[in-house]
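Just curious: can you write a single protein's sequence together with how it folds?
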Amino acid sequence: MVEFVLNGQNVSYDGDPADRLLDVLRDVFDCKSVKCGCKEGECGACAVLIDGILYNSCCVAMGSLSGRSVLTLEGYRETERFAVLDKAFGEASAVQCGFCIPGMVMAAEALLSKNPHPDKDEIREGLSGNLCRCTGYNAIVTAIENAAKEGNGLW
């Protein structure tokens, strides 16, 4: 049995420890913000924070999570930091189809937690593991840049 914290709640998983976190989050814990894009860790649609570090959940085995803390957008959206990012993404028109956005938001949180005032190049580097086919990256970079300014002191 794997016991871990998911979005602030103690949970356990008694399935195969080789199961992918992505599948367990979606199928067992109903975390639908975590998307299945490439299944190879290349697109970032399944990005989550594990102990505050950005991971592609399609590349994480459940057995590695014992005692760790996993944060998905379902948990993150309850925070003041998310409210700032959500507003910034909307104002910058940084969302179209929405498939990549949960992973982009989690990548933005990981970046801003380490560097609360990134420049455009640092933002692009922080998003480098996330793909977007609709919006393009300029609006997303602008949104994160604006969130960093608006969220003064949150990160």
Observations:
- The chain has six helices and five strands.
